[in-house]
Task: structure prediction
Amino acid sequence: MRLYGTEIASRLMLGTAQYPSPAALGEAFRRSGAGIATVSVRREAGGERAGAAFWDLIRELGVQILPNTAGCHSAREAVTTARMARELFDTNWIKLEVIGHADTLQPDPFGLVEAARILTDDGFQVFPYTTEDVVLADRLLAAGCEVLMPWGAPIGTGLGLTNIYGLRTLRAQFPDVPMVVDAGLGLPSQAAMAMEMGYDAVLLNTAVAKAGDPAAMAEGFARAVEAGRLACEADPMEPRDMAAPSTPVIGRAFLE
Amino acid sequence: MKIMVNGEGRDVSAETLAALLDELGYGDGRVATALNEDFVPAAARGATRLAPGDRVEVVAPRQGG
Result:
């Protein structure tokens, strides 16, 4: 899978938040085989040095870093946060989040497009956290995004793919654009379904970090992503309403 | 002078952003900065003068989804 010209071996992208311990985070990443880790920036007090410790932990994972602008509610906040993240993590990649609604954490489509354009012009490679809206997708591509990350469901809900029609339509409309289902996944079967539908990758965090055994769940997701991708590449059969015998009818005994 | 640092009121003597980070004990920590909601690159902190009422943000790498 190529994202902004970078070859990524795994189609599973994993967040780094909410794990019970740094060791659990490390073990989950090892079992998942994830090639990309999402991270964030947050306020730090003088002498705290928590950022440096986390930076060391992340670099040990040996994965591509994708900083986010989580929690930003305006294009301006997101742009400033992205620029701070670029300096801290030494990458032009940014997972662009501009949140428009407190309860659903739904993206603000207007702020998202505005920030995507500013950041692209500033040399960023933008991964917009978006909805399944095809018009918004079109605007984001026009703003310079080369990857789209539609939600499966609101962040942290674990509801899976809540608008299958919308996700199918989006995938069909832009067949050549790398797309990652980001957010809302709770179970490996949901990740497999996204991959079967032709999505290039999935990004999740809570489903693994909040599982009773994060490492086992990470491996479960890794296998599901692989299974779904294989199925997609294997050209699945068309569903049909009527039964059709799979065992040959000709040569059956007792046939008069 | 009185400024805001990470949302908290502080009375500081530093006149530049670089001096402020030293005064508050950031030293060589891995941090990025913004002044009045605009990013200030590390290389520009020494030449970035502070004024009363300024709002400074100092952030570092953290876990994220």
Q: What stands out?
A: Chain A has a mean pLDDT of 96. Residues 69 and 97 of chain A are 5 Å apart (CA to CA).
